[in-house]
Specification:
Layout: E1 4-6, E2 11-13, H1 20-36, E3 63-67, E4 73-77, E5 80-84, H2 89-96, E6 110-114, H3 120-132, E7 138-140
């Protein structure tokens, strides 16, 4: 054992830190974390449902943007409907609405009805395109719960 040496003057301790147990413990912890990390599921966001509360009423004749499951977009005004896409939806709303110019686009009420199975990113892109075009009155259509 190299901890004690003697040369005639008494005992002297040699101070050394043994790193082997520390490294063993760290490697075991690393292996435990590597094995358990893939098993942890990411948390899911529980979105609130709309109950029978007093919902604000929709404007009289809003422009309705419908986004289907396959991410196709339709713009409806009253009974008239035209197809569009996510990239051009804002320009199509301004062209489609009779009597609305780009400068007065902020007064146009727009309601987005999106299928619940589409990506959130698609709805955000449509809202962003409408905001860049100057449309400020944008709402989301919901179905009242039980």
């Amino acid at each position: 054992m190299p901890a004690v040496t003697s040369r005639g003057r008494g005992r002297r301790n040699i101070s050394e830190i043994n790193m082997v147990p520390f490294i063993d413990v760290m490697l075991v912890l690393l292996i435990i974390f590597m094995v358990t990390a893939p098993l942890i599921t990411p948390s899911l966001i529980a979105l609130p449902k709309v109950g029978k509360a007093n919902l604000p009423r929709q404007p009289a004749n809003p422009v309705q943007i419908e986004i289907q499951k396959d991410e196709t977009v339709q713009i409806r005004i009253k009974a008239d409907a035209r197809p569009s896409n996510v990239a051009n939806v804002a320009a199509d709303v301004i062209k489609f609405e009779p009597g609305v110019k780009a400068a007065a686009a902020e007064a146009v009420p727009v309601v987005i009805s999106a299928d619940k199975s589409i990506r959130y990113e698609t709805v955000v892109k449509v809202m962003g395109a409408l905001q860049e075009a100057g449309v400020t009155r944008v709402g989301l259509s919901v179905q009242p719960g039980k």
